[in-house]
From TrEMBL, chains A, B:
It is an enzyme of class 2 (transferase). GO terms for cellular component: cytoplasm. This is Xanthine phosphoribosyltransferase. Its EC number is 2.4.2.22. It is found in: Cytoplasm. Belongs to the purine/pyrimidine phosphoribosyltransferase family. Xpt subfamily. It comes from the Bacteria. It comes from Candidatus Avisuccinivibrio stercorigallinarum. The chain crosses the membrane at residues 67-85. Xanthine binds at L26, N33, K161.
């Protein structure tokens, strides 16, 4: 098992229930990011536990909203705290770390923030999210973690679109990246997995 | 156990780690809505299971983002699908139900939407959210569920601010509402629980 191997339960589910739309879009809202299948979520979290078994981390970090479910399940199985970075600055949040992320999908920038109370010097965080595409959200997280004086222990994604190259960038930085399903192409609305 | 009894594990945690700010604001971002303690989350979900033991439901419904964690944990323990209504219309969502919610906290309206694929006639949904205050989000959910031809089986909240009266409204509609901690007052930055 490594970052280049698809997790079969997820791959099968994508083939069964995923929908490929024009423009390289993969819809998985029946089981990942609108309706969630908690049993599949547990299986995927167990797979993350295996893939990051040799890594030391004390906290799970994600970004709202679609990352929360996989992060929570993993934190629950490991009895680790889960922190979700927020896409808007809450009026009640002080003591804050902020970074700016550009979304290609939405063609606009947004701020991502996290309280220093929950991301601290010495923390070794495992970042979890649903999708890895161009990697801009992940780059924002790296910036937040650096600003906090904490450390990225690894990054785990349910689905990586390798043709958008965010994974290349992250792996070049020496980050351990594990994606449970790697999709090399969605051309002509056909889902082509890495293996 | 009923809607008027505080769940002691949550009450104790609020007293230990919650922060009361000016203007009736209770900050619980150390364990509920920014950093999450998955073990407390499990205990709270088990408490929901007990309180809704006599109720029949086939789906957990919540709104992004802070409702996702408690909804996922409950869905996981019960092996039920979890649907989270979205606060913005995703560009890839069709076949959609929409309602408008006015947020007093943010002093603006926002749309909440859900695909008809995941909220269907005959569904009996248990709605879960972190906070119940004036109840506007809950009213929006009732509207969505009615538009879907589905049914509200019950509504569960981690924390209810009874002095903002959303709970009164929902209970008057005959809805079974269970809140794990009911706060009657935050006057003078003192947390006063129902019991």
């Amino acid at each position: 098992m490594n970052g280049n191997t698809c997790f079969s339960a997820l791959k099968e589910r994508i083939l069964k229930d995923g929908k490929c739309l024009e423009g390289g879009i993969l819809k998985v809202d029946g089981f990942i990011n609108h309706q969630i299948d908690p049993d599949l979520l547990e299986q995927m979290s167990v797979e993350f536990i295996k893939r990051f078994a040799a890594v030391e981390y004390n906290k799970i970090l994600t970004i709202e909203a679609s990352g929360i479910a996989p992060a929570i399940m993993l934190g629950f199985l490991l009895h680790l705290p889960v922190v979700f970075a927020k896409k808007k600055k809450p009026s009640t949040m002080d003591n804050m770390l902020t970074t700016t992320v550009f979304s290609f999908t939405k063609n606009r920038s947004y701020d991502v923030c996290c309280s220093k109370d929950f991301l601290k010097p010495g923390d070794k965080v495992l970042f979890i999210d649903d999708f890895l595409a161009n990697g801009n959200a992940a780059k924002g997280i790296i910036d937040l973690v650096q600003k906090a004086g904490a450390e990225i222990a690894g990054m785990g994604f349910l689905i990586e679109k390798s043709f958008q190259h965010g994974g290349d960038y992250l792996r070049e930085q020496g980050i351990k990246v594990e994606s449970l399903a790697i999709i090399d192409s969605l051309d002509n609305c056909a889902i082509k997995f890495r293996d």
